Amino acid sequence: MAGRFAPRPRTAPALPTAPATQATSATQKIAPTPTVPAPHTAPATHTTPTSPPADGLRRHWTPPDGAPYDLGLALGPLRRGPGDPTFLAATDGAIWRASRTPAGPATLRAAHHHGGAVEAQAWGPGAEWLLDHLPDLLGASDDPGTFTPRHRAVLAAHRNRPGLRLCRTNLVLESLIPSVLEQKVTTVEAYRAWRLLVRKYGEPAPGPAATRLHVMPDPRTWAMIPSWEWHKAGVDAKRSSTILRAVRVARRLEEAATMEPEQAAARLQLIPGVGPWTAAEVIQRTNGAPDAVTVGDLHLPGIVGHALAGNRDADDEEMLELLAPYAGHRHRAVRLILLSGHTPARRAPRMPLRNFAGM
């Protein structure tokens, strides 16, 4: 299966700084709402929103009590491969993201500032929405203080990565679609599909990153992508059909961002083709769920088993048993295990990449 957590972002050429001033079917289905606007479009009363100033809107956020904070660790899981057109880690340490918010497309630039604060700038119709939700995105709603390491590997990673906080995007579709693309394929295949589809059917990001970043398509555009374009991007009919079912009820799915993690996972799994694996991958990012464990993954049980018990052949059941002492923080424990580098050596060569376009 494809990547469980995005690695810490690699650096890329700096962008100009603005001038200072987861599949199982469900028995219950969500009924689509016909002829309603897509969830990410601006409300009717704001059809022509006022554009923010050229230097964007600004906001600062400071971690509570001067706690250590690592911006790259917090936002890293939102990156879908080194060529993700919606995410860029610049050489100056800033992270740029392009999102489709309920108020419209927007671009966010976040960077560490003096005194441990994070300074953010945003452009586009959704700029204000992004900055209103900035603390959640940066991990303000996360509570790592109640986490207690109980294994040597986890303790070492916890000490080495004290600035880890779990982000919360409050945007479901932007995590759901790439997670569906990652079902039962290599990360390279999934990242390629996401990159091709967003660049072709998305739109340039607002602000100074327009030439480097793209905002993902809105639900209506996803629904209009021809079948042969999915095929050319290497996406089989099962995954594309799941995405098409999801975008038809996008407004209902976005409500999951306000739910408790268990309820959110249940809401997502009402879509045939979205199972526990995909639901966990989504709510980890959308809801900042510290206890959402990814089950049904090809590699994760072996990684956790190897790090905590020296058993690289562990299955989901054993993985959950090993993570039981971290109840309430099992996802955080897994993140730390992955950051620790205690992964078993590869036994077999990587799966060959398939050429769907040539089939």
DSSP E strands, number: 7
Strand content: 5-15%
Structural class: alpha+beta
**Strands across the major sheet, in which order?**
1-5-4-3-2
C-alpha end-to-end distance: 22 Å
User: What is the count of DSSP helices, taking H or I runs of 4+ residues?
Assistant: 15
Binned, the helix content reads 25-40%
H/E element order: EHEEEEHHHHHEEHHHHHHHHH
Q: Major sheet, described briefly?
A: 5 strands, antiparallel
* Anisotropy-based shape: globular
Computed over alpha carbons, the radius of gyration is: 20 Å
Give the mean pLDDT. 86
Spans of 5+ residues with little confidence (pLDDT < 50)?
Answer: 1-14, 16-29, 31-53
Account of the protein in words:
Helix content is 35%, strand content 9%. It is of the alpha+beta class. Helix 5 (173-181) runs antiparallel to helix 12 and helix 11 crosses helix 12 (276-286). Residues 1-14, 16-29 and 31-53 have low confidence and may be disordered.
